[in-house]
Write a structure and sequence with these properties.
By secondary structure, the chain is α/β, with parallel strands linked by helices. It has one domain: 3-Layer(aba) Sandwich (Rossmann fold). Helices cover 44% and strands 22% of the residues. It is built from 8 helices and 7 strands; from the N terminus they run ααβαβαββαβαααββ. Strands 3-2-1-4-5-7-6 form a 7-stranded mixed β-sheet, sandwiched between helices. β6 and β7 form a beta hairpin. The longest helix is centred in the C-terminal third of the chain and has 19 residues. The chain is globular, with a radius of gyration of 17 Å. The structure holds S-adenosylmethionine (SAM). S-adenosylmethionine binds next to α1, α3 and β2.
Length: 234
């Protein structure tokens, strides 16, 4: 049985510190600092005049803080299941900008946004908590409608592979990365919570879904082992 939304929220409530380092990003993610940089600079390159953004599953605010480095006048609305995460994000963001956006504590599946409100949407390491195909389709559609025409979405996330042999190889490589980073018991802990909590989809599933939802100019910015960064334009 996979974790419920409540269980996911409770785990993240206890894990704020791990998501509060802008230099390393979340170190359990391969290439975390590179991807933070790629996603945020690409968003700024595609929408240089952006004034409003949405950070889905903002955690402690790393992606918003990086966005503000390249687009200092941006107002970013934050979404997270976890109140302690949201509070930490708001504190850190208040240190660098007076243009605080709105904070929504809740499940992205249940929230509604004004049509065409945002120039940029980022979703980092959050969408892999979605379960059924219908949930994925409805969240992608919701984010599409929340963007203005010409606005862009940028996603970085854990992914799986449709070929089981490729999946096994990529998983083994990820295990080697984790064991080298902090030892074998750390690897086992991370694998256990992924098994319990996460339902990632393949990069191809997500690219197809972006296209089906209506996005164009779809780009893959990075893919390494079981992580990818990609996005597109409305
Ligand atoms: C792995 S953390 C990543 C945080 C941040 N984006 C980063 O990259 O540093 C995932 C975050 O997504 C949030 N989250 C998970 N499922 C969510 C959902 N269904 N709706 C909103 N937030 C969610 C969690 O509470 C957590 O803070």
């Amino acid at each position: 049985m996979k974790s419920t939304v409540n269980e996911i929220r409770q785990r993240f409530d206890q894990d704020v510190e791990r998501f509060s380092n802008l230099e390393t990003g979340q170190s359990a993610t391969i290439d975390a600092p590179l991807v933070l940089d790629l996603i945020t600079r690409t968003a700024a390159a595609v929408n240089p005049g952006a004034t409003r953004a949405l950070d889905v599953g903002c955690g402690a605010g790393n992606y918003t803080l990086k966005l503000l480095e390249v687009l200092p006048d941006l107002e970013v609305d934050l979404v997270d299941l976890s109140l302690p995460m949201l509070e930490r994000a708001r504190q850190r963001i208040a240190n660098v900008t007076a243009r605080a956006g709105r904070g929504f504590q809740g499940d992205i599946r249940d929230l509604g946004f004004e049509d065409g409100r945002y120039d940029i949407v980022v979703a980092a390491a959050s969408l892999h908590h979605l379960r059924s195909e219908e949930e994925w389709a409805s969240v992608f559609a919701k984010l599409y409608h929340a963007l203005r025409p010409g606005g862009s979405i940028w996603i970085s996330d854990l992914i799986e592979h449709s070929n089981p042999k490729v999946q096994a190889l990529m998983w083994e490589r990820y295990g080697e990365y984790l064991a080298k980073l902090k030892g074998e018991s750390y690897r086992n802990d991370v694998f256990a919570y992924i098994e319990k909590e996460d339902t990632p989809r393949s990069l191809m599933f997500q690219i197809d879904l972006l296209r089906k939802t209506g996005f164009r100019n779809i780009e893959i910015l990075h893919k390494n082992s079981v992580f990818a960064a990609f996005g597109g334009v409305k």
